[in-house]
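Record type: monomer structure entry
Structure origin: computed from sequence
Chain ID: A
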Amino acid sequence: MGALLDAVQAVLPGIRDDLAALVAIPSISALEQHRADVERCAAAVAELLRAAGCPDVQIVRAARTDGTGLGKPAVIGRYSAPDGAPTVCLYAHHDVQPAGDLALWSSDPWTITERNGRAYARGVGDDKAGVAVHLAALRAFEGLPPVGVTVFVEGEEEIGSPSLANLLEENHDLLRADVFVIADSGNWDVGAPAFTTTLRGLVDCTVEVRVLDHALHSGSFGGVAPDALTALCRLLATLHDERGNVAIEGLRAGPGPDLDYPLDRLEAETGVLDGVGYLGDGPVVERLWTKPSATVLAIDATRVLDASNTLAPVARAKVSVRIAPDEDPAVAMQALTDHLLRHAPWGAQVLVTDGSQGAGSVIPFQGPVADAARAAFTEAWGTEPVLIGQGGSIPMVADFQRAFPEATVLVTAVCDPDSRAHGIDESLDLADFATACLAETLFLDRLRRGDA
């Protein structure tokens, strides 16, 4: 490990500078006003790959699968495989979530600020650190990786990868690989690496409740005529039973790993207030990773400031359901729709409009490639990686599995439970970042040596 450790340490200062430069670009794929920033970030990633000696770099786009135009720019960089060596595709994404209320941040979200061994900024962990880890490995090999390498940096993961399926189809030969390393998950803890082996899927919808053809005075007709907001509240309450288990008939639930999730850790990570209970029954890892969950994301109704004594004729809500890793999203969407229609209170008219769908994944961690990854990560971190699930959804993992069924997929991480991805004061543990760079470098070297 000595020579590769020295090589990684030598490139880390420049890699951290490049990470800061990427973070400074607010590449928010969800907001149209940042379209130019997403383009600029793709160009910056392409230039970094060229500077790392990549001989073939392209910025590509494909049509969105919903037919609403072209997707965001992705970057593909390719290093040819030496004779007899496998090819590894290294994935990350360069788009980020909005920063939210800037006043809530402890520092500028678009400028990396270091505090107590952590770097704070939007995208510093999710997932521009993933881009930087791949660059570090390539630079450690001085632009001559020991195996074939394809770097694939997507530009729309944070909006559900709407053009990814078409990108994979149109660039199938460019992206074909023996191994896919997807650096976009979470580690078990600071100093404790992990490989993700299950991911929940996702479906969401908008539900609209109508009870009147016009608003009514609540004093004149309250007690007889229903109001839409109360009807909507009663409908949404049927999504769970009294203990907080999801009550949508027909949804699957899978077993979780044999792994303890300590209550004190859960309390620290969630910030649940004193006296507020947790939802559902069964082991925490099942409730987080393999059982369905239902969340009311938003409600359209009169705001308190504008309230009057009125029976509202219509109200809407957006409902999100995380589904078991092996659940069919189409089946889950139908189950959610059927539930909402069947539980309409007081004969209210209910309209359900489908939203996004994303498949979960079961990602086997077995075979010679997995063994090589386990050995490399254990060598780098000094402790064996934990096999975990994730409650969040990364639908593109399933897209890779469908497009390249013979390949081995590894889902790795740079973030940890304190990273607050998508939240205020998102951060990255800098020591873990350096170790992740070393682990990926060692893994590529093991593949060259035939350890897989």
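Annotation 1: Residues 132 and 339 are 44 Å apart (CA to CA).
Annotation 2: The mean pLDDT is 96.
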